[in-house]
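Q: I'm building a small set of examples for a reading group on sequence design. Run inverse folding on the following structure and report the sequence directly after it, with nothing in between.
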């Protein structure tokens, strides 16, 4: 897969892929000039990604003994598409983690419930940690420091969210599981 070029696939190509997966989104009667149709390209790519993730989820045995093999098989296809460039793989992973963080933080409330807050912060810890390693690999000490600070802050938020959830269910810090069940 090449990440070069401004638009490696057009909106029409993505729409055709969605149609092939029986997931064609509703369209406006006439979307207008090509520029307007290209404006919806990212939304269509998001639809294609969601459909693909749903198909993978349906094909993956999440509660059975062989779930790891299913996930590894899907990962093999992912790796084949990405090719040998580890930088591209990290960029794709970072992008996925950022999307996951945004999805975890839905609905957009002023304050998330503590478990969702902890999950959001855990995902952001991973984003910052990957970023720190990329900066370190490039010899960028200042960028590494900045990303590590973000990771540490997010990790603290993860622990705080987990603690807040324990408090919410009536657990005291360090209390053994099942003591109040």
């Amino acid at each position: 897969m090449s990440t070069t070029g401004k638009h490696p696939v057009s909106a029409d190509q993505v729409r055709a892929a969605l149609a092939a997966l029986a997931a064609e989104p509703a369209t406006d009667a006439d979307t207008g000039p090509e520029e307007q149709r290209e404006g919806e390209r990212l939304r269509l790519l998001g639809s294609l990604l969601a459909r693909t993730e749903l198909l993978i989820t349906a094909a993956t045995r999440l509660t059975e003994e062989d779930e790891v093999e299913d996930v590894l098989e899907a990962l093999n296809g992912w790796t084949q598409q990405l090719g040998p460039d580890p930088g591209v793989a990290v960029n794709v992973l970072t992008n996925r983690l950022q999307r996951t963080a945004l999805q975890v933080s839905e609905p957009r409330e002023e304050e998330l419930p503590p478990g969702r807050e902890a999950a959001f912060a855990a995902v952001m810890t991973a984003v910052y940690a990957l970023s720190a390693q990329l900066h370190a690999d490039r010899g960028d000490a200042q960028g590494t420091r900045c990303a590590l600070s973000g990771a540490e802050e997010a990790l603290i938020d993860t622990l705080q969210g987990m603690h807040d959830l324990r408090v919410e269910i009536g657990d005291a810090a360090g209390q053994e599981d099942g003591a109040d069940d």
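Residues 3 and 162 are 38 Å apart (CA to CA).
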